[in-house]
Specification:
N Utilization Substance Protein A, Chain:P, domain 4; KH_dom-like_a/b; transcription regulation; rod-shaped; alpha/beta; 15 strands; GMP Synthetase, Chain A, domain 3; 16 helices; transcription antitermination; five-stranded mixed barrel; KH_sf_prok-type; 5 domains; Transcription termination/antitermination protein NusA; four-stranded mixed sheet; OB fold (Dihydrolipoamide Acetyltransferase, E2P)
Amino acid sequence: MISELKALFDYYEKEKGIDRLKMVEALSQALLAASKKSIGPARELRIDIDPDKGTIKAFAKLIAVENVTNRWEELPLALAKRFKKNAEIGDEIEVEVTPNNMGRIAAQTAKQTMLQRLRMAEKENLYEEFKDRTGDVVSGVVRRFEKSDVVVDLGKFEGVMTSKERVSTEDYTPGDRMRFYVKAVEKDSGRGPEIILSRAHPNFVRRLFEFEVSEIGDRTVEIASIAREAGYRTKVAVHSADEKVDPVGACVGLRGARVKNIVRELNNEKVDIIRWKADPAEFVREALKPIKVISIQVNPDKKEARLTVSDEDLSKAIGRRGQNARLTSRLVGMDLIIEKDEHAAEVFEGQMGSAVHHLVDVLGITESVARQLTQGGMGDLKTLATGVDVSDIAEVLGGDEALAQQIFDKAHASSLE
């Protein structure tokens, strides 16, 4: 047991960097619990370990008495005088109570407990080394899964990527080498200090841009805000105080090289780079490009923007399952209310109504026929008289050639007047 203990102490001290005194303390506590089963509930039992020699001894403080009534707490005065010549009744005498089977107890019962304590000591070292690295990007290898959590080998230590920090579109396989964002180093978690890793955090994208774009690294270009739905799309707003620097161009890089490297690291997640604007309305317009915003009203008190777009742009502005509107809202820091431009529809309807009434008056046809012609692009007399054939009119009217001929003749006659 002596040689085994010394080898264990040497290994953890050299290979794991754990202080030998911490190991002695851990083993003492483990053996104290284990020894009580063999020695019994001796008074003030303690374990003494010599880390250099590897020896283990157990001691108890017993009270010197004339007649022993509790052998776990008392010892006869005559025996007490063997340990302390001038012992008197009531004195506390420390007596060695090491059992003959202490080696077996240490080997079988205490070793596992000690190793658990040593793992905690390792985690304490982990916390000290990583406590100032929150926000860093580290490289690691996927090792195993613990339920839905991914355990990552960071070299000397292990990190954990919880299910909510995983990217839903990514697959993780043991042996995969990847980069991770250090979201937090938690000291008081239920499992001891832990390095919490993430690939879904928006700041993971921020750090990748800092590594890839030198202008961001030296603060020539700054990232104003980021909105991300991990695995699908990220919007990044950038600006520069130097008017000579194009912040968007700097992030995109020559032939898109810089942003391509970031997209590759993100497993082809779509990344939109947007020019930041101090004016909220202009910022919203930039964030929604190439969609054309017809009108916008910003309420800074409510942090709300109400905007209108054309009917054909409405679905694009909202995006699939509301993603584009949601990301834009996060990016600009305002709630967006996106509406269809009703005014344009009203103007169009008014123009169509005028054309219908004009055809009714001139050609003597019903309003429904006139509306069919207008919706078919034949809403004016000139088009009916010179721009189309009778067969074209009949096609719009559902094949009614007689009516088509009548309309064509009246339109042609009217154009000659």
